[in-house]
Amino acid sequence: MTAISVADAKYALALCDRIAAHTDVPGTITRTFLSPATRDVHALLTAEMRALGMTVRTDSAGNLRGLYPADAPEAPVLLLGSHIDTVPNAGRYDGILGVAVPLALLRAINGKRLPFAIEIIAFSEEEGIRFKLPFIGSRALIGELGPDELARTDADGITLAQAIRNFGLDPANLADAAITPDTFTFLEVHIEQGPLLESLSLPLGIVEAIVAQSRFELTFSGQANHAGTTPMDLRRDALTAAAAFISSVEALACSTRGLVATVGVIHALPGAPNIIPGTVTCSLDIRHADDAIRDSNAGQLLAQVTADCLRRGIGVTIRETSTQRSMPMDVALAGALAEAVSRTGRQPHRMNSGAGHDAMMLAGKIPSAMLFLRTPGGLSHHPDESVALPDVQAALETCMRLLETLTH
Ligand code: HGY
Ligand code: MN
Ligand code: MN
């Protein structure tokens, strides 16, 4: 099969740079579900896909899908891809690299036809920023984008269904996003987004399972009042109640092996230094490799905050905005991927993913695997997120070896 050159890796990274230029917030890399910048990225990727001999379509969930034909009709389909939406002020590789590497792979194959077709998918939304619902794109592939999800509203009150219509698509046609029956495997190439591979001085990881994650939104209701005239014992301060909750989140996660929990968003209203906050909303993101441990710790935190707010005379409402169970990757495929890494002369490292990925949605339907690339500094969901050129070349060589395996 074809050799991989450093030019192929450079192509992938250059494509990530070109896509990073399309943002909804100038000065940052920020693209949310079907935003104006997404349309620009679709146009850019469509041109790349067509130049590689692919046919291109956009399904009704806004996933951009390029199909590279097989050497014969009616052939099975290998699905590759990742997401092109980002968190606010993101890096340029989270998600996107998982579209750029497969395109670089096809570029290296250089028109050769294989006994299977290759579909490369740029998922429309994985992060869950605009609608507080992660995996919108990949949910559509597995038939889990239903009326409840379509009724979700963004900060401007636009429903998910309307956002799809505003992009020129029809939510009534979501069946067009379904994984085709002849799709036999999904491989997602992604940066690790953590410090492990770098600490081991290894370029590539093979994901064995993606940890369970739940996200909640909490609203604390106290009494706004004058900061200067209201005695401390007469206050119903919503922000100090939230602060006690946030401290309890940190304390529990630090004392529970394998648990991570984060409050990443907090809004205090009315939001003036001389007004006691009357209403506070905050998020909770809690993860563990074991569903039951994730659930029991989430339950403990939410029971604790409910009791504490009762004592403080503060109202608290809790909404679970999303939850994903821990998802193992396909054992045989992970083995083939590890063997492909070894055949490039590198040491494969099997690991779990603390980050969620579209693969966790597809793995329940088709054999799925993930190839991780080392993240320098372990820094991600940050503009300084990076990836090393040699590691991109290593990933491409691994993917090429895997294609050889799948071809026989
Ligand atoms: O938050 C996550 O785990 C992923 O980056 N969406
Ligand atoms: Mn991410
Ligand atoms: Mn990602």
Short characterization:
The protein has 12 helices and 16 strands. The protein has 408 residues and is α+β, with helices and mostly antiparallel strands. A hairpin with a 5-residue loop joins strand 1 and strand 2.
Descriptive tags:
408 residues; 34% helix; Alpha-Beta Plaits; globular; Aminopeptidase; 16 strands; five-stranded antiparallel β-sheet; binds manganese (II) ion; 2 domains; binds (2S)-amino(hydroxy)ethanoic acid; alpha+beta; nine-stranded mixed β-sheet
Task: Give a topology summary.
Blueprint: H1 6-20, H2 36-51, E1 55-58, E2 64-68, E3 77-83, H3 97-109, E4 117-123, H4 136-141, H5 147-150, H6 160-166, E5 183-191, H7 196-199, E6 204-210, E7 212-221, E8 225-226, H8 238-254, E9 260-262, E10 266-269, E11 275-276, E12 279-288, H9 291-312, E13 315-324, E14 327-328, H10 331-343, E15 349-353, H11 359-362, E16 368-373, H12 389-407
Parallel strand pairs: 3-4, 3-5, 5-16, 6-15
Antiparallel strand pairs: 1-2, 2-4, 6-14, 6-16, 7-12, 7-13, 8-11, 9-12, 10-12
Helix pairs in contact: 1-3, 1-12, 3-12, 8-9, 10-12
The structure holds (2S)-amino(hydroxy)ethanoic acid (HGY) and manganese (II) ion (2 copies).
Low-pLDDT residue intervals, each spanning 5 or more residues: none
In what range is the share of β-strand residues? 15-25%
List of distinct ligands in this structure: (2S)-amino(hydroxy)ethanoic acid, manganese (II) ion
| Helix content class | 25-40%
Order of helices and strands: HHEEEHEHHHEHEEEHEEEEHEEHEHEH
CATH architecture of the largest domain: 3-Layer(aba) Sandwich
CATH class of the largest domain: Alpha Beta
Overall geometric form: globular
CATH topology of the largest domain: Aminopeptidase
The end-to-end span amounts to 12 Å
Strand count: 16
Class computed from helices, strands and strand pairing: alpha+beta
